[in-house]
Design a protein that fits this description.
The protein is α/β, with parallel strands linked by helices. The protein has two domains: 158 residues, Medium-chain alcohol dehydrogenases, catalytic domain (Quinone Oxidoreductase, Chain A, domain 1), CATH 3.90.180; 122 residues, 3-Layer(aba) Sandwich (Rossmann fold), CATH 3.40.50. It contains nine helices and 15 strands. Helix 9 links the parallel strand 14 and strand 15. Helix 3 crosses helix 4. The two termini are 30 Å apart. 46% of the residues are buried.
């Protein structure tokens, strides 16, 4: 099978699309013929081995995962012994946050992992939104978001932000989305109750106070945003922040027994993916696709994601020889 191989840490230019052995399923595993995946911020970090402490688990001097890619959607090609939940030909989607491996034509995963049947009528490319939704749902669960809660989402146009707006609305929250000018209409279409164009309006000067603030792009600061929080309000970020401040602050608040700032680790399971399937079926969760690339264009896909200018997700089609940009 064809796969995008990275044998060392470094930039996108060192990725090689080559032939490797097609995986075979072991007991309790399925092999999936992939029809769509993504190139994400996580992939970019793993490719370069950054932040450095990540290498303690990912491989100190070279990556253990030679083929990256977390999101996947495709059809079951083969099943291992003892697999009863899936059959060849089933359309499935989900995440591979431990093995990675989705930047290839086939992927082998345990059936107990975060995957589910793809709802009828949902295209493969529209199903690879799970990594962004995974992070967003983890934070919303940690917050305990419910009906009537007021949440401000800074950076509501990326993979995590677009998912967070939709998932928060599905939970009955009142959502204020902070985006740039070109994403104002998108945030409204996703269901945000109020949209702040940070290029025209200072969101930090708002009179309103929020139960929760989610920095979905790692560019806000707790010290700036805390005046927007209610007395029992909480702040969370999806990135380390300047000087890794979100890690240190999370540790400090934990030590003093406060939940004022949270930096929860994402956790995925089949139940979460099944929830995403249900929301997709109901039209409450949809993918926002920026561009599509073929597997042999993966270097260009990485370079684009690393500009930090993408809207929603960047699709990689392992089947197509070439892709095309989708506005």
């Amino acid at each position: 099978m064809r796969a995008a191989l990275s044998r060392r840490y470094g930039g996108p230019e060192q990725i090689e699309v080559t032939q490797i052995e097609t995986p075979r399923p072991g007991p309790g595993e399925v092999v999936i013929k992939l029809h769509a995946t993504t190139v994400s911020r996580t992939d970019c970090g793993m490719l370069r081995g950054y932040p450095w402490f990540m290498r303690l688990s990912a491989g100190l001097f070279a990556p253990r995962a030679k083929v990256l890619g977390v999101d996947f959607a495709g059809t079951v090609a083969a099943i291992g012994e003892g697999v009863g939940a899936y059959a060849p030909g089933d359309r499935v989607f989900g995440l591979s946050p431990e093995r990675f491996g989705a930047h290839a034509e086939y992927l082998c995963l345990p059936v107990t992992g975060p995957m589910a049947l793809l709802p009828e009528g949902i295209e493969f490319a529209d199903a690879v939104l799970c990594e962004g939704a995974w992070y967003a749902e983890t934070y919303l669960q940690d917050f305990g978001i419910g009906p009537g809660d007021r949440i401000l989402i800074y950076g509501a146009s990326g993979a995590i932000g677009t998912a967070a707006v939709q998932l928060a609305k599905a939970r009955g929250a009142e959502v204020t989305a902070v985006v740039g000018t070109r994403h104002v209409d998108l945030a409204r279409e996703l269901g945000a109750d109020r949209v702040i164009d940070y290029q025209k309006e200072a969101y930090l000067a708002l009179d309103e106070r929020f139960n929760f603030i989610l920095d979905a792009v790692g560019k806000a600061s707790y010290f700036q945003c805390r005046k927007l929080l209610l007395p029992d309000g909480r702040f969370a970020a999806t990135d380390l922040g300047a000087g890794w401040q979100n890690i240190w602050l999370s540790l400090w608040f934990g030590l003093i027994g406060s939940t004022r700032l949270r930096f929860p680790m994402p956790r995925a399971n089949p139940v979460m993916i099944a929830r995403f399937a249900s929301l997709m079926r109901a039209g409450q969760l949809k993918a926002v696709i920026d561009r599509c690339y073929g597997l042999n264009e993966i270097v260009a896909a990485y370079r684009y994601v690393e500009t930090a200018q993408k809207t929603g997700i960047v699709i990689l089609d392992p089947v197509a020889q070439t892709g095309g940009e989708t506005p």
